Amino acid sequence: MVLLIFVVIFCVLVVSHEGGHFLIAKANGIRVTEFTIGMGPVLYQKKKGDTMYSIRLLPVGGACIFDGMDGLEVTKPSEDSGYDEEEEKAQESRDESLTGQISFRRANVWSRIATVVAGPLANFILGFILALIIVSNTYWSFPTVSGFSVDNSPAQEAGLREGDIITSVNGSAVHMSAEVTLNMYLTDGEDVDITYERDGKSYSTTITPILYEDEETGASRYVIGIYIGEYDTVSGVKTLKYAGYMFNYYLTSTWKSLGLLVKGRTDKVELSGPVGMAEMVDESYETAMQTGGILDVILNMVNLAMLLSINLGLMNLLPIPALDGGRLVFLLIEVIRGKPVPEKYEGMIELVGVAALIGLMVVVLFHDVSKLF
Question: What range(s) does the PDZ domain occupy (predicted)?
């Protein structure tokens, strides 16, 4: 069952991402040579029009391959690269013969930018839709102080009381209890500026966290000593707004985690690949089965798919060669220069990016597998 759920989530994520590329490419007349789900040996293939549709064995990715992405086509002439007029005419004839579509590099630069951005954007749209499903079918945890977790709680000493609604932390608005928890998790003991509401009036205070050590796990973290969360349903038009809040929370938490990774604070960041993703599915499934029924399982899986979809969209926009963000950088440089980056330079940078990405995948895979034993 866990394997089936994993495959379903994987397929939804890949189809949404690559489907975004595919639809915008087709809309802009760019020829798609292959649309594939999975990597490695082919399990199933069928060609329709100019496109080969494939399902491959390994659930570790997918691809929307455009004509010209392999660098074998002849690009438009520029002073930075060689140009063969006969080959250029042959390519033009080929473009005209194949349903009037053109190769990726021959498309207008803005059409290529739209095609590249469409994949991550599709993941964000999917993430919002899934957030809407969750908000419509679960309780919302409002950021209301429900009690105090330690003696001499810093929050209580700073003036907070049960029933106070926290509205911002360090200047960032909060709408759900998880946002307060995230901000506290990321702190290293610095003072925390809190704005809260009580009886319809707004108040502000500054709290100095204390270091709390969990006796069971031995782990330590900084806390302000509160229990947070008051549950209620959200309905009607409000579900759209609160789905936006949920989407923003997951997007922000991913972005902040990347910031911690860059700063070297890896103790607060968890990187996972396909093996780690499968383990997350397993843990979510087991927890949902123990605490609820089939509806809880479905909602847990939808929540996990939402998190992964938003992660996938954001990660692909990073300006790293071999990712959509890296290709987007080259296209923006082309807009500024008025001509493409020479293929030999782009190819070398892409090669370095691919090598670095493969290296990271190996490290993450080793980390995921080591946690299983």
Answer: 151-179
Alpha-carbon distance of 102 to 67, in angstroms, equals 8
Catalytic status, residue 18: yes
> Which helix (H) or strand (E) segment is 300 a member of?
helix 294-316
| Structure-token pair, residue 344 | 């030999």
> Which pLDDT belongs to residue 270?
63
Catalytic residue among 18, 73, 179, 346: 18
Q: Which residues pair with residue 168 across a beta bridge?
A: 173, 195
Nearest-angstrom CA–CA distance, 235 and 79: 60
- Domains of the chain in sequence order: 140-232 (2.30.42.10)
Q: Would you state the pLDDT for residue 83?
A: 44
Hey, what amino acid is at 227? Y
Residue 234 has pLDDT above 80, yes or no: yes
Whole-angstrom Cα distance, residue 182 to residue 154? 18
CB 244 within 8 A of CB 237: no
Distance CA 231, CA 135 (A): 12
